[in-house]
Amino acid sequence: MAERTLRADAERSVRAVLEAAERVLAEDPGASMEQIAAAAGVARTTIHRRFANRQALIEALAASAARQLAQAVDDGRPDTAPPLVAMHRITANVLQVKSAWAFALGLPADPNGEAAALHQDINRRCTVVLKRARADGLIDEAADLDWVRRVYYALIGESLHGDADNADPDTLAARIIDTLLHGAGPRP
């Protein structure tokens, strides 16, 4: 029982450190491990015990954020929900994760690291949803799905600027999906 408590405590400490690192580094990318420890409410030795160095902390931060992003995609049921429903759910979920973990998700991923592998899987899963949407007639048969995916990602990124803090993720998701599928041209 004590072992389980220690694991849970260690997990909470790591979570607190990663959340603090996101906040502190978003404001000051050059912040020290000591500043992150103070913001997390843990001793400096706790951070050094969990992370060998600053780069290890950064890699853990990127991997944690990528795992949350992958979970956001999974929670949208990309393989089983109707494509339009999946696209909306995934978009709303991703907006929440991206707004909470903007610094970590903006980090360049180590090509051999966990975060890069997760991002590749997210790209693959996005393409699967877009193929399903195309099969349902939501996307033109001739559309280049890689291009559609990149435009979709750009719409998500742009929606996080401006007054996105005041917008409901579902409202933003609806705008993104509508723009992706119908563009800005006049409607019949």
From TrEMBL:
Q: Which residues bind DNA?
A: 32-51
Give one Pfam hit by family name.
Answer: TetR_N
What range(s) does the HTH tetR-type domain occupy?
A: 11-69
Name the chain's protein: TetR/AcrR family transcriptional regulator
Keyword field contains ATP-binding:
no
Q: Which UniProt keywords apply?
A: DNA-binding, Transcription, Transcription regulation
- Which InterPro entries does its entry note? Homeodomain-like_sf, HTH-type_TetR-like_transc_reg, HTH_TetR
Q: Which PROSITE patterns match?
A: HTH_TETR_2
- Presence of the UniProt keyword Transcription regulation in the record: yes
Top-rank taxon of the source lineage equals Bacteria
